Amino acid sequence: MRLLFLGMPNVGKGTYATIMKEALGIPHISTGEMLREEVSKGSELGERINKIMLEGGLVPDEIIIELIKKRITQDDCKDGFILDGFPRNEDQAKQLQELTEIRKVLHFKADDEVIIERASGRLMCSDCQAGFHKTGKRPKEEGVCDECGGELMQREDDRPDRFQKRLDVYREKTAPLIDFYDRQGLLVEVVINKGIDEIRDKVVTSIKDYLEGKTDTIEEIR
Ligand code: AMP
User: Fold this and answer.
1) Which end of the chain is more exposed for a tag (fewer CB within 10 A), N or C?
2) Which residue in 126, 125, 128, 127 sits closest to 139, CA to CA?
3) 157 C-alpha vs ligand 1 centroid, how far in Å?
4) How far apart are CA 212 and CA 38, in angstroms?
5) CB pairs under 8 A, 24+ apart, for 94-102?
6) Residue 117, pLDDT above cutoff 80
7) Threshold 0.85, pTM exceeds
8) Other C-beta atoms lying within 10 Å of the C-beta of residue 17
9) Ligand 1: which of 52, 53, 167 to mutate, most ligand atoms within 8 Å of CB?
10) Which residues contact 121 (CB under 8 A, 6 or more apart)?
């Protein structure tokens, strides 16, 4: 059950990864989250990474590959995992191919206006990185994380000027991976223009049926 989630920043990949992680019982591996953890340690490497992240650029491949290698060889990954935010360019995708075989790649997409609206309302817990939204998945108590009671805040790289740079980098470096995986017959399109919850059941059922061998293809989900 090795799945890969691809899509523009803020399309909802992380939210779906959390949903699928619970439905399938496999870990959700987010390179963004791993990098933010490194930054929070205040190490020299963390400072270097933070600068790149704030500028909306990509952290060097060697750093990312090292993180991924370590993570996917851990015990809890032996039945599979969900990769979210990795790979982000063709070199990373090729290196991943040498490390492991991916069963399906879900390409989450939505119209630009939807993405920008989602970015402007997104909130993240400053302690455990759980995701919330001002109008979507709202916390029970305003400004407080449901999971750990931490303070919710807007991610610095979600600020409009920084977010635009991340979109540009996505279009230039990451979007070519859609074709890369399509050519390998791995791609499934998931359109989430409506609320993230509206197609939750369809996504979970389609993936489960496929992984359990009840169907041998997955049609576009919308
Ligand atoms: P995310 O949380 O996935 O939106 O990632 C936040 C930031 O972390 C990105 O804008 C990049 O600066 C960095 N990042 C995350 N994953 C990768 C990756 N696979 N390769 C390079 N940089 C990454």
Assistant:
1) C
2) 125
3) 10
4) 36
5) 95/61, 95/65, 96/68, 99/68, 99/69, 99/72, 100/2, 100/72, 101/2, 102/2, 102/3, 102/4, 102/186
6) yes
7) yes
8) 25
9) 53
10) 133, 134, 135, 136
CA distance 63 to 114: 32
Residue 16: Cβ-neighbour burial (10 angstroms; 0-12, 13-18, 19+): buried
**Nearest to 32, CA basis, from 2, 9, 66:** 9
Residue tagged 């039945």 (tokens): 79
As a whole number of angstroms, the distance between CA 14 and CA 104 comes to: 16
Q: Does the CB atom of residue 7 touch ligand 1 within 6 A?
A: no
Pairing state of beta strands 122-125 and 104-109?
unpaired
Q: What angle do CA 166, 170, 176 make, to 5 degrees?
A: 170
How far does CA 138 lie from the centroid of its chain?
19
**pLDDT score, position 20:** 92
Q: pLDDT by residue (tens digit) across 172-222?
A: 999 999 999 999 999 999 998 877 777 888 889 999 999 888 988 888 888
- Is 53 touching ligand 1 by the criterion CB < 6 Å? yes
